[in-house]
Input
Amino acid sequence: MIDIASRFLDINNFQRAWEKVAENRGCAGTDGETIDSFAHNQTVNIYQLLNAVVNSSYQPLPYKQVVIPKKNGKQRELKIPCVRDRIVQQALLNVLYPLMEEKFLPVSFAYRPNLSYINAVEKIADWRDLGYSWVLDADIVKFFDNIDHHRLLKEVRLYIDNPGILCLIKSWISVGVLTQEGLILPQKGIPQGAVISPILANIYLHEFDEIVIATDLKLVRYADDFLVLSRSQERILTAKLEIINLLDAMGLTINTEKTQITNFERGFRFLGHGFLENAIFPVDANQTKLKSGIEQKQAKKSSKKKLLKNFSYLIK
Output
């Protein structure tokens, strides 16, 4: 338990937060203020923003709804905070990152400094080489939209014992989004597009990580996409039910259409890579040929060789 308020409410921290937000650019929020307009009087604006947070007069504005079309024809909704809200969130993130990096486990690879999906892919190869050949390839239904606010704040409170900061986080996840139909206030979920959301997502799933690795199973998680690995088919079958029950207790649900039990011999796809026996290769997300499960091994050795030739590199 640690009080991080003094590091959070430091003018140098707010200055660094502004520089990071300015570097990332991004569009204006619901108030119409752009990065450039804030920059015209940035010194005064930063001091005023910090004082508002210190005096508890700071109130976040609703998020701006931005809908982005996806390649599969569906849409992804982003909720964009105002520039000032992004700065305050980044200021808190600056002090949260080092604190939580001491707590997060090496099974989690998303939204963390010096880690990427490539590290997750390499870790899968490591477990494969150690005999963990059976895989539960799992996907959570609308993870960000289904995070329970009460449970999230309870988890955050384990690491931050400061009512003011907890109130800030609560305001950011509950302030709502301004749509064409008007203001929508969420009953659950955290906004995709908010600076603070990725670390909150990892905090929410940290207990999940702890429980899984305390068993004989192996876990590789990248945000809400994860693999559970086992040495035997029998164990992975029981693990699936355990994972379903564990997520259910957290208010989350497995996507049955995208979740499967497989192995390296049959093959599967994860984080933009195909895994087939000892080979790992990048795959095009639009190709249906290599969807999760890699179509039952309809390729015998000749066609398998032809398949592998089409990819630019192999790992191990």
Q: What stands out?
A: The mean pLDDT is 89. The first strand starts at residue 63 and ends at 69. Residues 79 and 193 are 5 Å apart (CA to CA).
